[in-house]
Each structure stands twice: as C-alpha cells, then as structure tokens.
Design a protein that fits this description.
Shape: elongated
Domain Transketolase-like pyrimidine-binding: 365-541
Radius of gyration: 29 Å
Keywords: Oxidoreductase, Thiamine pyrophosphate
Organism: Hymenobacter aerilatus
GO molecular function, one term: branched-chain 2-oxo acid dehydrogenase activity
Helix content: 25-40%
Number of strands: 21
Function: E1 component of the 2-oxoglutarate dehydrogenase (OGDH) complex which catalyzes the decarboxylation of 2-oxoglutarate, the first step in the conversion of 2-oxoglutarate to succinyl-CoA and CO(2).
Number of helices: 26
Strand order of the largest sheet: 10-9-11-12-14-13-19
Distance between the termini: 95 Å
Largest sheet: 7 strands, mixed
Strand content: 5-15%
Length: 701
C-alpha cells in the first residue's frame, strides 16, 4: 500500500486512513452519484421538469461526511448533497421518487425539490426539514446542537452516551449570509456540538468566488473565537475521510463547534435550470482535472486495493442500479390530488378548555403577571422547556419584567439572554423542536421581528407541510405589540396582518389575564409554530378603560384551546330581538375601545373577542353577524389591506343575506409608522371616541 495522500491542515490530529472496504464502498457510491447526474442530464426533458442539482464533483467529501454520521446524529444537508444521502444508505430509487415528485417520495410525498430530505428512519441520522433558501439551514442546525447540549445538561437525552453531533452542510457562497454569522456566533458562544461542512466550488450560480467574497470560509471563520477550523481537499476521498474523522472526533469529545472548509470542483450544472455552458467556458475543463472519481480510481489501483476489472464491475453495478431504479421511478404513482392540503398543521394537543379559570378566592392579576406565571408553571412542569430572547435572562427578566426571576429560579441554561439576533431566536426553535427541546422565545418588540421573518416563513411555517407531516415545529414565539402613550415608531407596531399571510403558523392575541394564561399554555403544548401577540397597553391595565384586562388568576394548568372566540360583552336579548343591536368583531385593545364606546349605546353592542386569529373561529363570527345583522370589524392596525378588511370581505360574502347594513371597518390611518408625539399618535390610532362615532353611524343605518 502506498503512502496516503497529503493530510488536511490539522497537524495536531492523526491521519485516519479509511478501511479498504470503506474505500471500495466510496468508489461504488461515487459512481452511483455520477450515474445519477449522467442519467438526469441525458433525460433532462423528463428529469428537469422539476429543478434539481447533483453532487457531481462534490462526491468525495459528501461520502466521507456520511460515513462518519451515526444514527443518533442529526444532519442538515444542502440541495447538492445527493451523494451524502447515498452514503447514509438511501437508494437511488428513493431519491428519484423525490426528483419526479412521486407519491412515495420518502421525504415529502412529492411536495418539494430533489435533494431536500426530511427523514425519520430507524438506523439513520435524523434529517429535519429545511428550506431551499441559501444558508438558512445554519440557524436551525445550530438550534439542533443547542437543544442537544441543553438536553444533555439536564440528563434528558437518551442517546447522551453516543455524544450526538449535528452536521450542517453548506456551500461557500452561502457563508456570506448574515444568518450564517448569527449561527456561528451562537455556536461559539455556547460551544455547541455542530460541524459546518463548507463545500467550496468557487461558484455561486454564475458569480465567481472572487466576485462574491473577500475571503473564503476558512479565513472568515478565523474571526469566531472558539471555532475549530480544518481545511481539506474535498475532491480526495482519503483526505476528506481523515479530515471529517478529526472534525467529528473534536465535536464529540469537546462538544464544541468545527468548521471544515473543503475545496471541490463543480462538474455539473449549478442546477438543472442554470446551464453551465452559458457562463462557465474553459472553467469546466479546468475543474474536470480535479474530478474526485478518477482520483479515487487511481489511488485504489496504486494502493493495490482493487484491480481494473473489479473497479469496472463496481462501475457497471452502479449504472445498472441507477438505470433500473429510474425505470421503476417513472412508473411509480403520483400523489393523490385529494391529499394536497394534508399536513398544514399537526393535530392540536389541546382541544377543550381544562382547569379552573376562576378559582375560589383567586386574586385579580395583570396580564403580564399571568404570562409570567404561565411560563413559570411550564418550566417547572416540563424539564425539556427553555426560554430565551433579548434581556429575558439575568437580573432584568425582560424589558417588561415578563420573565422576572425566572433565570435565577431555573438557571442560565434554561432561561438566558441572546445577542440581538432575531433570526436566530426564531429559527433556532426549529432545531430545538427536531431534537425534542421545547423553546419559548421572545422578540423584544414587534417592530424588530422582521429579521426573523425569513426563518419564520421558510424554516418554521413550511416544515410540517413539506416534510409530509414528519417534522412539525413546536415553537412558541412571544411578541409584545401595540401602541400606547408615545412608544414611537419602533416600539408601537402591530404586525398581525403580515403574520397572517404566512401559512403554517398560528397567531394568538389574548386581551385579558385569564385568556393569556390559558392560551399561552395551549400555545406551548401545540405541536405547531405559534406566535403569541401581547399588547403592551394591556400588560398592567394602566390605560384608562382597560381595567377588565385584570382577571382572577386561573389555577395552575388552566388551558384554553386555540381557535375559540369569546363574547366579551353580550348585547341585551330584548334589544337583539327588536333588531336594534350590532356586533363588534375585534381583539386585543379593540375589546376595550369597544367596551368604552358601547356605554353610549346601552345593551345594543355585543363584542366578540376573537382571541385567536389563526385558526380563526369563523363559525362564531357568522353566528354573531347573523344574530345582529350589523357588524363592525375593529383593529389597531392600519386598515388598508389588513386582516380586518379581509375578514370584512369574507363576512360580506358569506353573510350577505343576513346583513342590514354594509360591514363597517375601523382601524389606524394608513401610515408607515406610529409617530412619537402623543397627539399625533392619538390622531392616527382608533380610540373609544372614534369607535363610538362609528357605532352611532352603524346602528343608525
């Protein structure tokens, strides 16, 4: 046997020579991956109906990584990683089922692209859903490692003796993404067991590395103190195998992060939709000189591990398997169109109200304290639960004191501050959920949620649907919202309409302490992503007219199902019988504007508090509208193109024959921000006086 290739750039680690059987397996699978790429190109009229990318040129490092993963590990591949999937033991046929969007695609049931796996299978690493958005997998992957480390610290991880790690595979072009930096920051800050495998082919679609970056990933990572770095030739299987052996050993032994920078040629198209001949020119020929397949072929012959005939036989086997599997996949069944809407959400855990809402002798409590007590109850009862966000840990306990003393009570591993990283705060919960940790997180103000929207949309909201129900994301995201008394343009926003345009998440909006406690617990127990909107003006009932937001505190364990509206104020039955009433459909602060305004119309105004905006209790809305025949939809948001206007249009359509007046709407003025000056704020927002004027017009119709 000849001397192995030049080792990777970590002289402190020994060069791990792969076993001959491992090298032969790598050769067969490298040919299998190459045959997939060949077949897809030769049959592009069929295979390119849905976009795909292949591992051609990256096979060596992908297989090396796959061979080091254990069934107790977690992986976040990227869209070029079909060789990695083959290395884990998936069959070409299974990959082709996804390529062709077939019913039995094991990852998504025909719902998402080739090379986008979601897998829970005995004997395989867990591969949660991740989006196709470049670089975004870094945050959920780091969240997985964060969850693993937390569960280990609490003695809650069944596989702790296996020292599981997370592999995050990513292209070098994606390393320029800001969200990748957030992931690296948290990985080193908390010393998390995650390996970032950066596959650098020096291209990002048609842009070269020179155009995209001032440094490569290895150089960039030097700025993250505590991140162990390795640099390897990703086109050489033996070198890649040794480098990944060192990386996995470091992550398993130290429980800290590693970045592996692997240089690879790009021998296929960027994707089937972007033809390499359009922009690569002579670069294709240059990259072909570094093809990992002939390199391994020569090495196996030189080391005497195989004969030419044996290698030819393995290559022929790979071609036959791929050809046969392709014919089978072509004949496989397509998804049943009737299942198109399955798995938008996982079934809810809480379907009925339970526990004591108003225990005998219970004192009235503010909404902020009800929320604090609900989180306290959850942390005490569920050891897998943790709570984090900006300023919620340490001594402060949140800028609204909504987490007061929780960090001291439960420790810094369960209740902790994060950097100013809304994307990480939101996206990490997907990783937490995948490993069995249950995160409650907080965005400090609704106006700062926007950096987290990328993760909320792509990683959380789509996970259950695109994984065919395998990976719902349990995530409770608390967001203080609303304006009162000069909060200004960055501390007063209402964001529900934006959130409600994100399918696959639930949006909850309590208006009193009892609902807050019951809905928060239900939101935590729900297996889906839930955003809990908490109006700052109702937290302490200091705003005149909001005294009813204080309620007797429900007992520990009280829970209120999501998706059930409540009558916050009934109309007088006699007035209703005479046709002299209306209903205000609202939520949050709107409940109290309507209560105050209705005092000018005794017995004539019913108030329906939606409490949950998605799922919406539209049956309760229809019942109220049909009973009263006049309706005002009231919101704090700017009205134009809002949830309130959408709801009004729906009412107009489904209840038209029961209406005695047009559906009225009232909201804030259509301005880009809430102004700081209190007089300007008052002019922009609804209030009790404006609601009373509108009710007078509606009732007089």
């Amino acid at each position: 046997m000849t001397t192995p290739p030049t080792p990777f750039s970590d002289p402190a680690s020994p060069f791990t020579v792969p076993h001959p059987d491992t090298q032969m397996r790598a050769y067969r699978l490298m040919h299998t991956a190459a045959e997939l790429a060949r077949l897809y190109e030769e049959n592009k009229a069929v295979t390119a109906r849905y976009v795909h990318a292949t591992a051609r040129g990256h096979e060596a490092v992908q297989l090396a990584a796959a061979f080091h993963l254990r069934p107790t590990d977690y992986a976040a591949p990227y869209y070029r990683d079909d060789a990695l999937l083959l290395g884990l033991g998936l069959q070409p046929y299974e990959l082709m089922l996804q390529l062709l969007a077939k019913r039995d695609d094991p990852f998504s049931g025909g719902r998402t692209y080739y090379g986008h796996p979601s897998l829970r299978r005995e004997g395989f690493p867990i591969i949660p859903h991740q989006s196709s958005a470049t670089g975004m997998q870094a945050i959920p992957a780091t969240g997985m490692a964060h969850g693993i480390k937390y569960l280990e610290s609490q003695g809650l991880l069944k596989t702790a003796d296996q020292r599981p790690v997370v592999l995050c595979s990513i292209g070098d072009g994606a390393m320029t993404e800001g969200e990748v930096s957030e992931a690296l920051q948290m990985a080193v800050l908390h010393q998390l067991p995650v390996i970032f495998l950066v596959q650098d082919n020096d291209w990002g679609i048609s842009a070269t590395g020179q155009e995209m970056r001032a440094m490569n990933a290895y150089e960039f990572a030097a700025g993250f103190k505590g991140l162990h770095r390795l640099k390897i030739d990703g086109a050489d299987f033996a070198v890649s195998y040794a480098g990944l052996a060192a990386a996995f050993a470091h992550a398993r032994d130290t429980r800290g992060p590693v970045l592996v920078h692997a240089t690879c040629p790009l021998l296929a198209h960027h994707t089937s939709g972007v033809r390499r001949e359009k922009y690569r020119g002579d670069n294709i020929t240059q990259h072909a000189t570094n093809d990992p397949l002939p390199r391994l072929h020569r090495q196996l012959l030189d080391m005497g591990l195989a004969t030419e005939a044996e290698l030819d036989h393995l290559a022929a086997q790979a071609r036959t398997t791929v050809e046969n599997d392709y014919q089978r996949a072509l004949q496989a069944a397509d998804p049943d169109p009737a299942t198109f809407a399955d798995h938008e959400f996982a079934p809810p855990t809480i379907t009925e109200e339970a526990g004591e809402r108003s225990p005998a002798g219970a004192e009235k409590v503010t909404m902020v304290d009800a929320a604090l007590h609900a989180v306290d109850d959850i942390l005490r009862e569920f050891p897998e639960a943790l709570f984090y966000g900006q300023d919620v840990g340490g001594a402060l306990g949140g800028v609204f004191r909504e987490a007061a003393l929780l960090a001291q009570k439960y420790g810094a591993q369960r209740v902790f501050n994060t950097p100013i990283q809304e994307a990480y705060i939101v996206g990490s919960t997907a990783g937490m959920a995948a490993v069995g940790a249950k995160a409650i997180v907080e965005i400090q103000f609704a106006d700062y949620i926007w950096p987290g929207l990328n993760q909320l949309v792509e990683e959380l909201s789509k996970s259950c649907y695109l994984s065919n129900g395998q990976f719902p994301v349990q995530s409770l995201i608390r967001v203080p919202v609303g304006a009162y008394g000069g909060g200004g343009p960055y501390h007063s926003g209402s964001v529900e309409s934006t959130l409600l345009n994100i399918r696959g998440i639930k949006v909850v909006y309590p208006s009193n302490a009892a609902d807050m406690k019951g809905l928060l617990r239900a939101a935590f127990l729900d297996p889906n992503p839930v955003v809990l909107l908490e109006h700052k003006g109702l937290y302490w009932s200091k705003v005149p007219g909001t005294e009813d937001a204080r309620t007797p505190e429900p007992a520990t364990g009280y829970v209120l199902p999501l998706g059930q509206a409540a009558i916050a104020q009934p109309a007088d039955p006699e007035q209703t019988r005479r046709g002299a009433t209306c209903v205000v459909v609202t939520y949050g602060m709107g409940v109290y504007w309507a209560k105050t305004a209705s005092q000018q119309f005794p017995g004539r105004v019913e108030i329906l508090d939606l409490r949950t905006l998605n799922p919406l209790d539209y049956a309760a809305v229809e019942r109220a509208v049909r009973q009263h025949s006049k309706v005002l939809v009231l919101t704090e948001e700017p009205l134009l193109n809002s949830f309130a206007e959408s709801l009004a249009g729906r009412i107009q359509r489904t209840c038209f024959q029961h209406l005695d007046a047009p559906v009225f709407t009232l909201g804030a003025a259509n301005l880009p921000a809430v102004p700081l000056n209190v007089a300007l704020e008052k002019q922009m927002l609804p209030n009790a006086e404006k609601v009373a004027k509108t009710l007078g017009e509606l009732l007089g119709w």
